[in-house]
Amino acid sequence: MQPETRAKPVAGASVTSEEKPYGVRIDSGGHPLRGDEPVAHGGGDTGPTPFGLLLSGLGACTAITLRMYAERKQWPLTGADVELSYLVPDRSNRWIDRVITLHGPLDDDQRARLAEIAEETPVTRAVRTGTEIRTTISRA
Predict the structure, then answer these.
(1) For residue range 59-80, what is the model confidence (pLDDT) as tens digits?
(2) 103: nearest Cα among 135, 134, 81
């Protein structure tokens, strides 16, 4: 059996609990963020919920990838707005609604291609296909 090759991380984050019931400090690549639960769920509502942060990552990846692709193709995309919702109507159904608004004088073929690209962004694929999570518990 060969030893597993250690992959270089694409991204990293560290999360530290705070004194408040559910508030957390997040450091992602040296960028400080916050997370929390709404007051209705016992939190202090001092930051986005974990699902809000997940949707933020998906939306950011979508907008950035579309801009990069359009720049490489020299297409006149001037911006991309991404609105996301995580919907859970019952225990067996859940999905993410993603609405992308493309800005700029794009033709129908360019818009169609950007819609295809949105379905293949790295975070879209990680969420859609599922990503293995390997957990280790350590002592303080």
Answers:
(1) 999 999 999 999 999 999 999 9
(2) 81
> What is the reported pTM?
0.89
Alpha carbon 3 to its chain's center: 31
Q: Which amino acid is at 74?
A: Q
> What residues contact 104, with CB distance under 8 A and at least 6 apart?
70, 75, 76, 77, 78, 79
| Tokens matching residue 74 | 């020299």
DSSP code for 19: S
Look at residues 13, 15, 48 and name the one whose alpha carbon lies nearest to residue 29.
13
What confidence tens digit (pLDDT) does each residue in 77-111 have?
999 999 999 999 999 999 999 999 999 999 999 99
Q: What distance in Å separates the CA atoms of residue 14 and residue 33, rounded to the nearest whole number?
A: 10
Tell me which residue has tokens 């129908």: 108
- Beta bridge partners of residue 7, listed in sequence order: none
User: Could you tell me where the beta strands, DSSP code E, fall in the chain?
Assistant: 14-17, 24-28, 31-35, 79-90, 93-103
Closest CA to 35 of 13, 19, 53, 14: 53
